[in-house]
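Hi all, posting the design record for the shared folder.

TITLE: backbone redesign
STEP: 1 of 1
STRUCTURE INPUT:
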C-alpha cells in the first residue's frame, strides 16, 4: 500500500490562491491541500466550500485550513500571499512591501522543518523568488517562480487566434522579467514546426506589424485586465497547477519559469523567466536558447532592470 501522499501547502488564499485551490481540486493533482492565510475565517470558508464540491471532483483531495506546522510534511509550498498590483502600479512597485512579507512567511515555513520545493507566484515574482531562495537557504533548484509561464500562455493564445490554429500547437516563448521588460523569442517561434517568419511569407493576408501588436497585448495584458476586473487570477492559477503537476508527477516538462541563472544567457545570481526542465526535484536544467543579437540585448536589459530594482532590498 502507498504510505506517502503528495501534500501541497498554499500560503495566501486571495484571488490567485483560491483560484489555484479550485483548479487543483478540479484537476485532482494532489492528495492533500492545506490552506494557510492570516484571514482564518475566509480560508476556513474556502476549505468548506471546496470540500462540498468533492463529489464532483475527478479524485479525492483532503483539504483543510491549517498552519505553517503543516509545511513540515509538504512536498510543495505555493506562495500566493502579499500585496496585489493596483491600477497604475507596475509589478516592480511591489518590491519592498512584499519582500518584507515574504521574509516573515519563509521564516515560518522553514521553522516547521520544511524540506520540499517552493513555488512562488506573488509579484514581482522574479525578485521574490530570489528572496525566497535567500531567506530559505534551500538549493536554487528547489525554489521556482511562476516566471513568464502566463505571458507565454498569453503569447501562444494570441498567436493561435491570429493564425487560426490550436493554441497547443503554437510553440513560442516569452522570457525575461515577468513585467514590462519581457521579450518574445521570435527566432524560435513556430507553429507545427513551421517558423513564424515563414508563416508571414505565406499568402494568408498576414502583416508583420501585427506581430508587434500581439506582443504588446501580451506584455500589457495584466494592465488591461486589472482596469476591467481589478486583478488577474484565473490564468495564473491554471499555470500554477500546470507547474504543480510537472513537479509532483516528475514530468521533465519544459516551462518558462523564474529560475536562477548560473552563467546561462551570460548572467548569474538572478532569477528570471527562462525555459527550464521541471521535475520532482525542481528545476533539472535551464534550456539555453540561441538568441539573436536583438533578443540578447533585450534580455540583458531585462536583467539590468531587475538587478537595479532588487538592489535596495536584497
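Okay, here is what came back for every position:
SEQUENCE:
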Amino acid at each position: 500500500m502507498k504510505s506517502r501522499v503528495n501534500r501541497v501547502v498554499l500560503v495566501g488564499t486571495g484571488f490567485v490562491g483560491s483560484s489555484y485551490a479550485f483548479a487543483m481540486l478540479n484537476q485532482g493533482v494532489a492528495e492533500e491541500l492545506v490552506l494557510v492565510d492570516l484571514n482564518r475565517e475566509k480560508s476556513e470558508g474556502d476549505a468548506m466550500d471546496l470540500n462540498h464540491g468533492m463529489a464532483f471532483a475527478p479524485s479525492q483531495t483532503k483539504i483543510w485550513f491549517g498552519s505553517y506546522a503543516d509545511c513540515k510534511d509538504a512536498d510543495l509550498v505555493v506562495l500566493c500571499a502579499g500585496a496585489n498590483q493596483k491600477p497604475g502600479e507596475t509589478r516592480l512597485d511591489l518590491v519592498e512591501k512584499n519582500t518584507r512579507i515574504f521574509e516573515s512567511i519563509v521564516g515560518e515555513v522553514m521553522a516547521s522543518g520544511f524540506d520540499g520545493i517552493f513555488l512562488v507566484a506573488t509579484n514581482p515574482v522574479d525578485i521574490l523568488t530570489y528572496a525566497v531562495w535567500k531567506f530559505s537557504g534551500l538549493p536554487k533548484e528547489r525554489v521556482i517562480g511562476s516566471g513568464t509561464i502566463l505571458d507565454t500562455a498569453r503569447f501562444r493564445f494570441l498567436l493561435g487566434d491570429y493564425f487560426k490554429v490550436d493554441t497547443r500547437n503554437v510553440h513560442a516563448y516569452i522570457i525575461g522579467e515577468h513585467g514590462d521588460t519581457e521579450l518574445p523569442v521570435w527566432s524560435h517561434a513556430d507553429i507545427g514546426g513551421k517558423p513564424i517568419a515563414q508563416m508571414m511569407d505565406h499568402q494568408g493576408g498576414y502583416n508583420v506589424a501585427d506581430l508587434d501588436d500581439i506582443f504588446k497585448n501580451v506584455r500589457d495584458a495584466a494592465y488591461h485586465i486589472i482596469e476591467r476586473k481589478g486583478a488577474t487570477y484565473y490564468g495564473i492559477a491554471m499555470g500554477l497547477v500546470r507547474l504543480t503537476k510537472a513537479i509532483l508527477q516528475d514530468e521533465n516538462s519544459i516551462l518558462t519559469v523564474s529560475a536562477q541563472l548560473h552563467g546561462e544567457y551570460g548572467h548569474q545570481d538572478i532569477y528570471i523567466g527562462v525555459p527550464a526542465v521541471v521535475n520532482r526535484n525542481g528545476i533539472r536544467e535551464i534550456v539555453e536558447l540561441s538568441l539573436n543579437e536583438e533578443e540578447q540585448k533585450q534580455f540583458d536589459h531585462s536583467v539590468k532592470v531587475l538587478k537595479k530594482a532588487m538592489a535596495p532590498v536584497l
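COMMENT: Residues 7-145 form a domain with the Rossmann fold fold (CATH 3.40.50.720).
Let me know if anyone wants the other runs.
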